[in-house]
Amino acid sequence: MKITVIGSHLCPDTLYALNKLSAAGIEVSFKDILSCHADLMSYLLLRDNSEVYAEIRGNERLGVPCFVLEDGTVTLDINEILK
């Protein structure tokens, strides 16, 4: 299984998730929204349009880390991936 993790190297929750996924042997592709403009723009498009972010939009929360599965499923819950 390969997971794309969208987040920031400055976010403790993102770093925790990356470590947990790595320890579980899951292949990770990391998109750091603070070091790559293209990744940030892609993330903002996802955040503005995905129902996963319905409760986050407008609440001054960033919503990372975000996990995108190989089939395109988007979740903010690492436990969904680790089951």
Give your account of this protein's structure.
- It is a single chain.
- The relative contact order is 0.24.
- Strand 1, helix 1 and strand 2 (27-32) form a beta-alpha-beta unit.
- The longest helix has 13 residues, at 37-49.
- The chain has 83 residues and is α+β, with helices and mostly antiparallel strands.
- A four-stranded mixed β-sheet has the order 2-1-3-4.
- The chain has three helices and four strands.
- The model has no long low-confidence stretch (mean pLDDT 94).
- Helices cover 36% and strands 22% of the residues.
- The two termini are 12 Å apart.
Helix and strand arrangement:
Blueprint: E1 2-7, H1 12-23, E2 27-32, H2 37-49, E3 66-69, E4 74-75, H3 78-82
Brief characterization of the structure:
The chain is an alpha+beta fold and 83 residues long.
